[in-house]
Structure formats: structure tokens, C-alpha cells
């Protein structure tokens, strides 16, 4: 199984993944996040605990247990996943709320930008 993973983007802004990664200084942190995304690409919906957790409202949390990073994502179908937010344990509550709002926005406005 190989799932396509795309990052949420609004307008002309940088996508959420690129924006978060550009703010990191430690190359090991970047590697951790890329490893999590690769796991998601390879395992898709089969990825389970402790790496992934369903949060409700179609939003999942991908977790790096050693560094506290969190990637919030949703499945569009069986072949596409959209990363909604990238954050850390400290911003978890706010990030979950924002991820759910972004998912709702995707559903309301359509997902054409992510499926082309």
C-alpha cells in the first residue's frame, strides 16, 4: 500500500508541513517528522497505536513519542491523506481544534486542489 500524502495550504501561503519544517533547526527533528510521514504513506489506515490515534470528526493524530511532535491529518479516500496541522505536544489542544476546522473547510469547499 502506498498512500499519497499532501499538506494543507491556504491561498499563496506555504503549505503547513513546509512551514513547520522551515522553522526547525535540528536535522534530527526533521528526520523524525519525515519518518512519521513515510510510515503514514506505507501503512495508511492500517497505521495504529502508538504511532497514530483517531481523535474524532475524521481527524487523526500521528505522534512522535520521543520528541513530542504531532501531525494532524485526515483521509480523503483510500489513496490520499491531507496533513492539516503540524505541531507539538505544547500546542496540542489548539492544534486539534484547528485541524478539525480545516477538515470541515475542506469538506465544505471541496477537495479539488488536493485531488488533481
From TrEMBL:
InterPro entries the record matches: HigB-like, RelE/ParE_toxin_dom_sf, TypeIITA-like_toxin_pred
The protein's name: Type II toxin-antitoxin system RelE/ParE family toxin
Native source organism of the sequence: Silvanigrella paludirubra
